[in-house]
Amino acid sequence: MLRGNGQQKIFLDGRDYTKFESILADSLARFSQRVHAYCWMGNHIHMLVQVSDIPLSKMMQVLSQRYTGWFNHRYDIVGHLFQGRYKAILVDADHYMLELIRYIHLNPLRANLVENIDDFPWSSHHAYIGKRRPPWLTTEWISKQLGPDIENAKQRYLRLLQLQADEEQERTMENGISQTGILGDDNFLDQIGRGGRQNLSINCSIDEIVEQTVAQLGVSRTEILSTSRKSHHAHARAITAWAAVELAGHSLTAVAEYFNRDLATMSRQYHKVRNKLIQGDQEIVNQTDKMGSGLRI
After folding, report:
1. Is 123 left (phi over 0), alpha (psi -120 to 50) or beta?
2. 296: closest CA among 215, 194, 200?
3. Torsions phi, psi of 47, nearest 5?
4. Is 286 helix (H, G, I), strand (E, B) or coil?
5. Burial of 212 (0-12, 13-18, 19+ CB in 10 A)
6. pLDDT digits over 160-214, tens only?
7. Contact call for residues 240 and 288 (beta carbons, < 8 A)
8. Phi and psi dihedrals of 201, rounded to 5?
9. pLDDT tens digits, residue range 72-98?
């Protein structure tokens, strides 16, 4: 989910939608990602993305920056178009994919933009009823989950849209289970807990990550931001750098600028933590797990 800054419109006419989709198509090809469903609302977007080995944050950064540049140039304005970073939820495809498709496609009805979902042109709903399908949209996997052939899949999809969802279910689609940013059953949650450190981008600033480091490592914000070379202060900065890159998708360059350090120094500290994780250093594993849990909450 990606929202306009201050709820401002991010699409003003058909040309804006078309340009956004063109940039998205380029970005999907560049970063080897797939989109299975989407809905472009006036001031925000929803996408169901299958991520490759490349973190989602890379594609989203390019997508938002390129479209913002084009939009601002077209309308002769300056400033941020989008409200900070995107919001991402990790989804258990086996149990929640179809519910999420339904949630995404019914957004225009919930927002009272149309009375009939068929009348809303800017979603993947039309592809799943056998009408127009953008070449960059992937529908095969979900269609196979719906039925053995095109007609059966279409009929089951239409029945899916008729199901009633309560407010709690809709909040779950928006935030994940218990605000975790993860949408899955108990086994999936347990698997994520054990498998831990995936490229799941958390929507938070470096400032917020520093606050979490303060809470988890017992150092002060002043100590982390200082020029002190004491080992525990340097370690706190290293943990912060790791969390910023691995959990929130920030670049090392951005982290170095935040701490007013040169990139080489920041890179050494980040890789020190990363290498210890690879080696299974239990103290580092515990610290990074706590950082991840704290930030997701």
Report:
1. beta
2. 200
3. -140, 140
4. helix
5. buried
6. 888 766 666 666 667 665 455 677 655 665 555 544 444 445 778 999 999 999 9
7. no
8. -80, 130
9. 999 999 888 998 778 888 888 777 788
